[in-house]
Amino acid sequence: MRILVVGGGLPAYFEASEQEKESVFQPAFRAMLADWESAGARVVASFCDDVLQVGPAEPGRWAWYLVFDVDHVDMASAMMNRVRTEVDGVRLDKYVRFEVRVGRPFWAREEDD
Q1: Which residues of 83-107 are buried (b: 16+ CB within 10 A; e: fewer)?
Q2: What is the pLDDT of residues 30-65, one digit of tens each?
Q3: Radius of gyration of the chain (CA)
């Protein structure tokens, strides 16, 4: 299956000091992405739409688009649960909002090998 993870920063991220972003948020966010991959999510592509955007993301106007291949839909659920799980004292859902869309590779663009 292919999943599209869309997301962006919440007010707490934008209100955080640069020190908090560098020492708390960024290490926790990178660890979460590494956990997703070590659990089996395979990166296909990413796109960050913050070049012409400022401030918190609103549903439908996302800053981040992350595309993964996963073996089953339960993986997408586990990925979102990781965002809301406290790890080393940090819950990332304080800082970011995510949604997942589930689909498959586009038939007219990607052929089976």
Answers
A1: beeeeeebebbbbbbbebeeeeeee
A2: 999 999 999 999 999 999 887 777 777 666 778 899
A3: 15
Assess contact for 40 and 75: CB atoms under 8 A: yes
| C-alpha–C-alpha distance, residues 26 and 98, integer Å | 16
Q: What is the signed CA dihedral for 57, 63, 1, 28, rounded to 10 degrees?
A: -80
Residues 6+ apart with CB under 8 A from 1: 69, 70, 71, 72, 73, 76, 102, 103, 104
The predicted model scores a pTM of: 0.86
Q: What tens digit of pLDDT does each residue of 1-33 get?
A: 999 999 999 999 999 999 999 999 999 999 999
